[in-house]
Amino acid sequence: IADEECNVDTVSLSLDEVYQLSVRVLTSNGMADDHARAIARVITAGQRDECHSHGIYRLLVCVRSLRDGKLVGDAKPQISELSPAIVRVDAGFGYSQLAFEVGSKILVEKARKIGIAALVINNCFHFSALWPEVEAIAEQGLAALAMTPSHSWVAPAGGTKPVFGTNPIAFAWPRPGKFPFVFDFATSAIARGDIELHRRAGKDIPLGWAVDEAGQPTTNPAAALKGAMLTFGGHKGSALSAMVELLAGPLLGDLTSLESQKFDEGVGATPCHGELVLAFNPETFAAGKQADGERFAEAMFDAIVGQGARLPSQRRFEARVRSETKGVQVSAQLYSDVQALIRG
Ligand code: NDP
Ligand code: PYC
């Protein structure tokens, strides 16, 4: 829900309050401090950029996953080098954020050295938006692409039964002196978290997002969550979603969304699988013509915004500037639900 849980009372929080609340909720439920802080950084960034489906709302499922017992709250990410271009981090059935933080440092070093590199994360529980990851790499002068499966919630184009996850793809392109060009979207018509927020707010969803259990189009979020979500762009989104499954699942020897759903055993925990992150060094690829490359890229961005269209992430960056001075608004109901998770 782009506008949070609409028509409801809200609570104002500073970014530090969001961060401290997130750490407290997680650590009081048994999560190790380093994991809790890495997760809190991503949740705070999501709330700051007004990505409500991936802000403090996610603490509800993080705690459910912790209490379920499959998630390892103090997992130690294990790094191994698969080849000069590929670093692997086994997240050890912990959340993905710490694995990304340790692995991305090596990813960036490798891409700087040999031009292109991959970070493979295995055995991670993954709930977050991908833009914080690709953005962090672009801020270091590299282009980046990331993808991950989830649970099987999405029907293939032409079908009505869930096979794919909501399978996000995120891309970032570095722009010296400016925010990078970033997009990050689910290959389903919308992230599942957004449908859950509609259900919480008692709001209908648009037609085209999902079908109910009988395979009929629905505007009811609860029926959508029980039925199957739909891909964006029909067969095109469906093929992209299959690509995410293959590149961030079987290619890495890790689970597809179907397997992640089975692994969950009906608990409703965060999906558990792999993630693939690629980094590209423009200096190596452009081979001495990087300045030309930058100029051509900027001319393309100018041609987009020059006609009144907006770049992806522009809304997010505007929200960031606002939140950094004014803090954020969270629905009072969500705030109270999150507070109730604190133990001890
Ligand atoms: P949206 O449809 O809200 O947005 C997708 C992208 O399109 C954003 O980069 C957005 O920029 C951009 N955009 C939106 N409107 C326009 C426009 N008019 N012109 C140009 N660009 C536009 O996202 P989704 O619901 O598909 O996904 C939301 C989040 O959910 C993502 O961050 C994704 O990573 C996360 N997710 C995570 C999963 C996981 O397994 N970990 C699974 C599925 C989703 P802006 O933000 O500025 O509006
Ligand atoms: O909103 O679709 C989603 C999602 C799945 C896993 C994390 N977020």
UniProtKB/TrEMBL annotation:
GO terms for molecular function: oxidoreductase activity. Keywords: Oxidoreductase. Pfam families: Ldh_2. The keyword Oxidoreductase applies. The keyword Nucleotide-binding does not apply. Belongs to the LDH2/MDH2 oxidoreductase family. This is Ldh family oxidoreductase. The lineage of its organism: Bacteria, Pseudomonadati, Pseudomonadota, Betaproteobacteria, Burkholderiales.
